[in-house]
């Protein structure tokens, strides 16, 4: 396989001249550039990524940490990140957490892995990391963006929707449809974005005379299996409820499945509202009402901001991400007569 030295020798130029001609950076005469190009073609030379990195001080790679590869929510983030990077001829390396350690330790290890692979920049998505962890990782690699995480120490690097507002809208939707006997399937209580949406949800209920301890609350883990098991626990508890809020769409879709198996009609017997409004929500049965988080736009702007930091581009960056509710068939007015769940 031909090397840069072979190209320089055949072209009759020095190594530095050949490198400048290939990278397009630095002064090279037209004659020398033509001879280098001819040597490249004659030798079928292909610059290595290491060689390009030496010439440009960049591997052209952005790292992305996600807690898991599963689910349509993370699928949207992965796809949009790759789309943004390919548009500027850059590439994506993805890491996730695995092993027996805690989710927090897995996240730290995975981000360190990406930093150790000399990624030009890193996008971090983790509700398990503490602010001190983000500070530490940012010191290791200053070109870092935080997605779905409000980080007050580095607001310019943070891209996050107003999850407290999202929780308020979920509660408001159930209340507006007459529901006052309510249950919640939560994500992990340790997750910062989950805590924010629960705080908003219960604050809105409290403003309408419904105390937090009057609501059946089950902690789960955002997974399909977790949503299914949590729904079963609600059914087993005997608590009466006509409205159910699930802290993400993945768990909400599992709840719909478990209700159908139990002969419980949605929305006639119980209304269900999810969160995220990922692309699976419209295809659930019945179609899932969900709090819409603009995940695509959040991802797009986080990645474009990081590309600006890494490569000197000047993408316009937007930081307003309105949270709304997408109404579909899974929420209806509470029935004054008939069966209640529980």
If you average the pLDDT, what whole number results? 90
Overall geometry comes to elongated
Distance between the termini: 72 Å
CATH architect. name of the largest domain: 3-Layer(aba) Sandwich
Total number of helices: 12
CATH level 1 class label of the largest domain: Alpha Beta
Keywords:
alpha/beta; Rossmann fold; about 45% helix; single chain; five-stranded parallel beta sheet; elongated; 11 strands; six-stranded mixed beta sheet
Description:
- By secondary structure, the chain is an alpha/beta fold.
- 45% of the residues lie in helices and 14% in strands.
- Helix 5 (72-87) links the parallel strand 1 and strand 2.
- Helix 1 crosses helix 2, helix 2 packs across helix 3 (30-43) and helix 5 packs parallel to helix 12.
- The mean pLDDT is 90.
SSE order and pairing:
Blueprint: H1 4-11, H2 15-23, H3 30-43, H4 49-56, E1 61-66, H5 72-87, E2 91-96, H6 103-116, E3 121-124, H7 131-140, E4 144-147, E5 158-159, H8 163-176, E6 182-186, H9 192-207, E7 216-219, H10 224-237, E8 243-246, H11 249-261, E9 271-276, E10 289-292, H12 295-311, E11 324-326
Parallel strand pairs: 1-2, 1-3, 3-4, 4-5, 6-7, 6-8, 8-9, 9-10
Antiparallel strand pairs: 10-11
């Amino acid at each position: 396989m031909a090397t840069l030295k072979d190209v320089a020798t055949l072209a009759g130029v020095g190594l530095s001249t050949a490198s400048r001609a290939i990278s397009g950076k630095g002064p090279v005469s037209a004659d020398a550039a033509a001879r280098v190009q001819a040597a490249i073609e004659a030798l079928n030379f292909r610059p290595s990524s290491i060689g390009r990195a030496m010439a440009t001080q960049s591997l052209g790679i952005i790292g992305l940490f996600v807690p898991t590869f599963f689910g349509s929510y993370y699928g949207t983030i992965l796809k949009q990140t790759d789309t943004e990077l390919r548009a500027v001829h850059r590439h994506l390396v993805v890491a996730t957490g695995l092993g027996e350690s805690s989710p927090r330790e897995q996240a730290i290890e995975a981000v360190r892995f990406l930093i150790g692979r000399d990624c030009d920049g890193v996008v971090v998505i983790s509700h398990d990391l503490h602010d001190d962890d983000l500070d530490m990782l940012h010191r290791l690699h200053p070109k870092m963006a935080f997605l779905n995480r409000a980080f007050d120490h580095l607001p310019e690097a943070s891209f996050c929707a107003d999850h407290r507002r999202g929780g308020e809208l979920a509660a408001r939707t159930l209340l507006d449809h007459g529901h006052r006997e309510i249950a919640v399937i939560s994500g992990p209580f340790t997750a910062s974005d989950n805590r924010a949406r629960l705080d908003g949800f219960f604050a809105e209920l409290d403003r309408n005379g419904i105390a937090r301890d009057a609501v059946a609350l089950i902690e789960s883990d955002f997974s399909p299996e977790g949503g299914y098991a949590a729904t079963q626990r609600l059914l087993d508890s005997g608590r009466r409820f006509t409205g159910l809020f699930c802290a993400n769409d993945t768990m909400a879709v599992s709840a719909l499945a478990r209700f159908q198996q139990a002969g419980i009609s949605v929305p006639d017997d119980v209304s269900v509202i999810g969160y995220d409004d990922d692309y699976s929500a419209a295809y659930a049965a019945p179609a899932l009402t969900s709090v819409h988080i603009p995940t695509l736009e959040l991802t797009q702007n986080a990645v474009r901001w990081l590309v600006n930091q890494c490569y000197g581009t000047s993408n316009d960056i937007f930081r307003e991400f309105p949270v709304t509710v997408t109404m579909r068939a899974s929420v209806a007015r509470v029935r004054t007569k008939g069966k209640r769940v529980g």
